[in-house]
Amino acid sequence: MTKPWQYAANQFLAATKKSYRLAAILSKAHYAFLQKKVNDFPLDPDWATLCDRYKDVHVPYIAAYDAWVAAGGSLKGNTLSLKKLFKLIPAQLDLWMGMIFPFFAKGSPGFVALFPRDRKPFTTGETDIKISAVNSLTIAIGDNADLAPTKLLVIDAYNELDKARTIQGGGKTSKSTGSETVEDARVAAMNMQYRNMGFLVDKYFDTPEKIEPCFDLLNLRTKLQSIFKRKMKVTELSVLIERTFVETDIMRIKAMFNATPTDSVSMYLSSTKGGMDSTAVNVANNHEAKINMSDFGITDYAAHRFLTAVTVSNTKVVELFVELY
């Protein structure tokens, strides 16, 4: 069978087939670039042509996408949310057990009382069984004062799982999420990006390297990662994520320091690698924070692409868990 010609395939349409969020990211990046070109080269009519015709599909798509998100998203989105939460469980177990070990060594009667089957109930079996295992851990901890910080984290994890499970179960018969509208708008926007690429190939046929900055190739080529783990040194600045964010993104971040309870990590959404040109959002030790994009105090999401963590700790290692959803 003959392999399809790569230039005859609309990669923008194919890459976003299962992700309205990715389509929104690509669309905002492309439109922002076109707007900048119009401002930088007002006497070149090509940029005005490309920008005007893309605006006609970009604005309706973002409006449809925002409405879809506000309505609760697709049914598949609810299922994936639960799957993402389960993917966090192994890292959460590392965190919880690390906080418990100073009081109950692994294999001790106290530890076995909390984890009678070790990790297995949390990571294997049916959905409700795994959720129940998390709830059972909160009950087993009881009123143990030493484990109170751990219990708060476990309760938070259980509440998130229970909420996602409820949404998933109730969402299977819902028809009012506006998915048909956002799908039609996605197809129109991604088709126009493909058309704009053809226009630019003609414009820059002898210098094709000028075409690449017109599109968000980083996210186009890479499957969107949603869960990030990072171990940081005592004093370190680290870029955790590089991508184009959207206003509706939400981050869930946990920070674990080996000892000092007063330590914290500062998060920035910067415009350069290693930069700190946004409002700082602090995450306390052994605390889970939910962060909205607006918390960073920026509006240009095309420019502010770098999620940066900065820590000054008296302990040896800081562990960060970041989920983007």
Description:
There is one protein chain. The chain has 325 residues and is an alpha+beta fold. It folds into three domains: 11-73 and 177-221; 75-171, no CATH class; 227-324, Jelly Rolls. It is built from ten helices and eight strands. It has helices at residues 11-15, 20-40, 45-70, 75-100, 109-114, 120-123, 127-141, 148-171, 179-203, 217-221; strands spanning 227-232, 235-242, 250-257, 264-270, 281-284, 287-292, 306-312, 318-324. A four-stranded antiparallel beta sheet has the order 1-8-3-6, with helices on one face. The chain is elongated. Residues 74-80 and 170-176 have low confidence and may be disordered.
Instruction: Describe the main β-sheet briefly.
Output: 4 strands, antiparallel
Termini Cα gap: 39 Å
Proportion of residues in extended strands: 15-25%
The structural class is: alpha+beta
Rg over alpha carbons = 23 Å
Mean pLDDT equals 81
Report the helical percentage: 40-55%
Structure keywords:
4-stranded antiparallel β-sheet; 3 domains; 10 helices; 325 residues; alpha+beta; elongated; Jelly Rolls
Short description:
The protein is of the alpha+beta class. The protein is built from 10 helices and 8 strands.
Summarize the helices and strands and which ones pair or pack.
Elements: H1 11-15, H2 20-40, H3 45-70, H4 75-100, H5 109-114, H6 120-123, H7 127-141, H8 148-171, H9 179-203, H10 217-221, E1 227-232, E2 235-242, E3 250-257, E4 264-270, E5 281-284, E6 287-292, E7 306-312, E8 318-324
Antiparallel strand pairs: 1-8, 2-7, 3-6, 3-8, 4-5, 4-7
Helix pairs in contact: 2-3, 2-9, 3-9, 4-8, 7-8
